[in-house]
Design goal:
45% helix; alpha/beta; TIM Barrel; single chain; 414 residues
Length: 414
């Protein structure tokens, strides 16, 4: 999830956005049909979808959801019909904990537990469509049964509070990766977004204990959102490969530490890990990244001008007007393929995957990858570029399943 959305507390309306590089060329129909068939045949894993937090914000005081994702929904990027159309088999559902909750002890863990409860409720309500999973083997079984699997990944290690014992607690609840930080430094280490603070100059002493405990119990370490020093220290400390669940390549966005540098992509790969490419336009294109920064600054200036009495409705109206006057650049599906190409050229096909950030980056998604029904478009572009079906199987899920299994095997002592 991007700080832009968390900062504003709303979805930006950018339907009038500029499209980077012109229109998507129309592919040969046979290649489109092949990509559709492949999407249904391959197991597709997405490393990061923010559906739980999105639905949590739409619940009534009685706990009733505003939308039923077992049916086609009018809002958001994920629901069962669209996921089936796109061939999605397992979504790592992000248990997102906003950084501002860190100020009050107990709130971060309570929200994480509540979002897991909520995800379990969704599964119980549609057991013929959804299933929670704790291993790749369970994903494969559910796929054979026609179910979409939900794996759980905590986005922000602040959910652990100050207790290493909470790693085992969340493992028992089904969590299979933890993103160590989010938009601010926390008790575990430094965030990529806090370049001026560097509270710990990498991992904290607690963070080092947490990484070791994650290795012990069998939870993947996720280095998305963390500072470069945290990544280096995690790689030195971890006994198993790590993932970046929704990060793209800094090569295309120089200075944006949230994306991974070539050096760090190579280091993650050398450890056996996987970089899962984020689909948000601000991760893919420098122009979109710069435009998002201007929106954040404009909103901040507006809030200062209006004072503490400013309402969310006023902020939303301001953002709509601002974006209407300053169209936001949007990436294309080809730009996602460019980032995949870059990782492959650096470290090979075994170290890249999909980490869309659906339901987290909203309408900044690329043209051609607007929701979970669109994975075939990405497969089609990759086929056009010469990727084999074996390559696509690794990209779609094989690489992240390999890491997941290695982490499991280490925890079992094998």
């Amino acid at each position: 999830m991007r700080p832009l959305r968390a900062f504003l507390g709303l979805s930006l309306l950018v339907s009038s956005a500029c499209v980077h590089g012109g229109n998507i060329s129309t592919p040969p129909s046979d290649l489109s049909e092949r990509s559709q068939r492949l999407a249904q045949r391959l197991i597709i894993a997405d490393g990061h979808i923010d559906m739980p937090y999105r639905l949590n914000g739409g619940r009534s005081p009685e706990g009733v959801f505003s939308e039923d994702v077992a049916q086609r929904t009018a809002q958001g990027d994920f629901d069962y019909p669209r996921a089936r159309e796109g061939g999605l088999d397992v979504a790592f559902m992000a248990i997102y904990v906003p950084a501002e909750l860190q100020a009050t002890p107990g709130r971060s863990k309570a929200l994480a537990d509540g979002l897991i409860d909520m995800t379990e409720t969704i599964v119980r309500a549609a057991p013929d469509k959804f299933a929670l999973v704790a291993s790749p083997d369970e994903v494969e079984r559910n796929t054979r049964e026609g179910k979409i699997s939900f794996a759980l990944g905590i986005e922000n290690g602040s959910a652990l509070e100050d207790a290493v014992a909470n790693v085992a607690h969340f493992h028992a609840r089904g969590v299979r990766y933890i993103t160590l930080t989010h938009s601010k430094d926390n008790l575990l280490g430094d965030s990529s977004y806090n370049q001026d603070t560097r509270t710990w100059n990498g991992l904290s002493p607690l963070g080092r204990q947490v990484v070791a405990e994650m290795n012990r119990v069998g939870i993947m370490v996720d280095v998305a959102h963390v500072s470069d020093d945290v990544i280096r220290q995690v790689l030195a400390l971890s006994q198993v490969p790590v993932i970046a669940s929704h990060s793209s390549c800094r090569h295309f966005t120089p200075g944006f530490e949230r994306n991974l540098s070539d050096e760090l992509i190579q280091a993650v790969a050398a450890k056996g890990g996987v970089v899962m490419i984020n689909f948000g336009s601000g991760f893919l294109l420098q122009a979109a990244h710069d435009a998002e920064a201007r929106v954040r600054q404009a909103v901040q200036d507006f809030k200062v001008q209006k004072g503490p009495a400013v309402t969310p409705a006023e902020i939303e109206a301001f953002v709509k007007a601002y974006v209407s006057e300053h169209p936001m650049p949007r990436a294309r599906v080809e730009d996602v393929a460019d980032h995949i190409d870059h990782v492959v050229k650096l470290v090979g096909i075994d170290h890249v995957g999909f980490g869309s950030d659906f339901d987290g980056v909203g309408p900044t998604l690329p043209v051609g990858l607007e929701d979970v029904s669109k994975y075939p478009n990405l497969l089609r572009v990759l086929l056009e570029r010469g990727y084999s079906e074996e390559d696509l199987e690794k990209l779609a899920s094989g690489n992240v399943f390999r890491v997941w299994r290695q982490v499991e095997a280490h925890a079992r002592g094998r």
